[in-house]
Amino acid sequence: MIYKAIKENLNIASELILSGEIIIYPTDTIYGFGVDATNPIAINKLNKLKKRISPLSIIVSSFEMIEEFVDLNFIVSDELKKYLPGPYTVLLINKNNLLPKEVSLNTGKIGVRIPNSDFIIHLVKKIKKPIITTSVNTHTSNSINNVDSIYNKFRSINIFSKDLNTNSKGSTIIDFTCSPYNILRQGDGII
After folding, report:
1. Which residues pair with 70 in a beta bridge?
2. pTM as predicted
């Protein structure tokens, strides 16, 4: 079933996420698969769907929430404010391993997003937990950015849609764990 991304569906999305289900939702770049970032069973279900195991990124709702999971110093925190919220994924040092090992896969890093996208930010605030974010595709396939194509390929997954069809390149990925910072992928975010 396709749901429109409107306020009353936050309840449905939060129930699905908290019960370990995968959802599909729009961001400010591409559509994403999402699960509860604190639930290793849900993360493994997502990895099985994507047919791969690799480090994952999380969506948080605020800088305060970032600080719960990563090690931020004053300089990095100030620098992040240039990019977040927005079409960027920032790699930061895994602070205290609060998230399951399936998120960072022992890399010592966590990818973090605060997309400029109301629906997913409100959902994170509602459940008070970060959400895994990864592109809607399977391993080695391109991201699917058309709602009809997503629905045809992943019929069993609830889609929270803005009827957004996009030609996005995804988020720009910046590694803030090194100095100078390193751009790992140029996406929609301008550097």
Report:
1. 94
2. 0.91
Helices 10-18 & 118-127, crossing angle to 10 degrees?
50
CB-CB neighbours of 148 under 10 Å: 12
Identify the pLDDT of residue 62.
Answer: 95
Contact between 152 and 159 (Cβ < 8 Å): no
The model's pLDDT over 146-189, given as tens digits with 9 standing for 90+, comes to 888 888 999 999 988 766 566 788 999 999 998 899 999 999 99
- Find all residues with CB under 8 Å of 15, minimum gap 6, and list them: none
Dist CA 2 CA 107 (whole Å): 36
Res 6: pLDDT = 47
Element (H, E) at 4: strand 2-4
Question: Is residue 70 within a helix (H) or strand (E), and if so which, with residue range?
Answer: strand 70-71
Residue pair 111/55 in contact (Cβ under 8 Å)? The answer is yes
Q: Minimal CA–CA distance to 131: which of 144, 148, 119, 146?
A: 119
